[in-house]
Amino acid sequence: DELMQDWAGRGVELVAVATGWRFQSRPEMRQFLDRLHPEKPPRYSRAAMETLAIIAYRQPVTRGDIEDIRGVTVSSQIVKQLEDRGWIEAIGYREAPGRPALYATTRQFLDDLGLATLDQLPMLDGPPTAAVFDPGSAGQPSLLGDEPGQVALPLDEQPEDGDVIADFEPVFPTVEVPLAPTASLTTEGAAEAFPPADVPAADDPSPATLA
């Protein structure tokens, strides 16, 4: 506390993070630091951010759990991208057919967010979820209705037929290209552009009659 008070009012501050303590610039100094060292933060796709959020709030989860929540297939590239960034890791395997890997966030994830514990994550809008990670919990909640506990296996017990993650390919953000405006015709314009065809009168002799 004394050290924190000594640095109060300066450009940097001493804060507690998941891995210990660190000095970091104060938020109000960011605009000046951006001028000195302009850097573009890495951009991640929406699918990657949704996957990371589900893991952070519902960990430990499998890829199947994430797919059930998002309603779409989770790409192996997204999982590997988050692992390479150091934000998630496999902590074990669920005792289920195929023994899928269980993913959870890392201390690096908390450090990058400037947090000390998962309890400091912002609350989600909506009904509370009972599957939020609790380090002191005796069992691990499952999104598939499994009994708590008996779900995670040690990492040293590697599955014989484990999933192989494909080589990472950068995930580029989707670019939306506006469509050209479609031309609209009014009733009068349509009549001018497409005049009605001449329809022969009923009493006109047809070719069959002339023959």
List keywords for this structure.
211 residues, alpha+beta, Arc Repressor Mutant, subunit A, 8 helices, 28% helix, elongated, disordered C terminus
Outline:
With 211 residues, this protein is of the alpha+beta class. It contains 8 helices and 5 strands; from the N terminus they run H-E-E-H-H-H-H-E-E-H-E-H-H. Strand 3 and strand 4 form a beta hairpin.
Helices and strands in order:
Elements: H1 2-6, E1 12-17, E2 20-25, H2 30-36, H3 46-58, H4 63-70, H5 76-84, E3 88-94, E4 101-105, H6 107-113, E5 152-153, H7 187-193, H8 207-210
Antiparallel strand pairs: 1-2, 3-4, 3-5
Helix pairs in contact: 3-5
Structure, described:
The chain is of the alpha+beta class and 211 residues long. Among the domains are: 2-36, Orthogonal Bundle (Arc Repressor Mutant, subunit A); 46-153, Arc Repressor Mutant, subunit A, CATH 1.10.10.10. It has helices at residues 2-6, 30-36, 46-58, 63-70, 76-84, 107-113, 187-193, 207-210, and strands at 12-17, 20-25, 88-94, 101-105, 152-153. The strands form 2 sheets. It has a 3-stranded antiparallel sheet. It has a two-stranded antiparallel sheet with strand order 1-2. α3 (46-58) packs across α5. Mean pLDDT is 69; it is low at 127-187 and 206-211.
